[in-house]
Design a protein that fits this description.
By secondary structure, the chain is mainly α. The protein has one domain (32-175, 184-189). The protein contains nine helices and no strands. Helix 1 crosses helix 2, helix 3 (44-57) packs across helix 4 and helix 4 (71-81) packs across helix 7 (148-161).
């Protein structure tokens, strides 16, 4: 699969066109830094908040979740190596906004909320982004920054499904495909192929 096909496939997975920053990352074959490498952009508190948010988006079930796939490190790497300065600033402002919303609604940080309240806050952010009007376009055709939570979901999905955990433990990975059998009952395979 070439880079253009990979970007299209991720767009299909997300049900929309991917943002330019994500397209650049996929096109460059970007992956999370090795375990143990400290965050380049995020503070430890921001990293913990991001890790919690991504795990709420893709929680661990019978397969590993976003934390096990190191999606937080993937996004931090994007912030450092792929995002433009204005994208980085917009993303960090979105992270800060999550804590501001938690403080306004419950008088505490997002990490100190119960899981039920965390999910309720994120659900409200998702609904808010659905009813919001699309942002106007800037000069030279560049779009205005998008809503934070849908963007975070996009980054989480891309980071997860391009990781070894997502591609081999969530999806079935066939390194060298065998014969083609187009009519296999889903119950027999149990999950999709990557």
């Amino acid at each position: 699969m070439n880079r253009r096909d990979a970007v299209k496939a991720i767009g299909v997975l997300l049900g929309a066109a991917v943002t330019p920053s994500v397209a650049r990352a996929v096109g460059a074959g970007y992956r999370a830094p090795a375990p143990g490498v400290p965050f380049k952009v995020l503070t430890p508190q921001q990293g913990e908040l991001l890790g919690t948010l991504t795990e709420l988006i893709i929680p661990a079930t019978n397969t590993p979740g976003a934390r096990a796939a190191r999606v937080d490190a993937f996004i931090d790497g994007l912030l450092a190596d792929v995002f433009r300065a204005e994208e980085r600033k917009h993303f960090l402002a979105g992270l800060a906004d999550v804590d501001e919303r938690a403080r306004a609604a419950h008088g505490t940080t997002f990490l100190e909320l119960t899981p039920e309240r965390q999910v309720a806050l994120l659900t409200a952010m998702q609904e808010e982004s659905r009813v919001a009007t699309p942002p106007p376009r800037r000069r030279r055709g560049r779009p205005m920054p998008r809503a934070f939570f849908p963007w975070l979901k996009e980054l989480t999905l891309v980071g997860y499904y391009t990781s070894e955990v997502g591609a081999s433990r969530e999806l079935r990975y066939v390194h060298i495909a065998g014969r083609y059998d187009g009519d296999i009952p889903y119950q027999r395979i149990g999950r999709a192929y990557s």
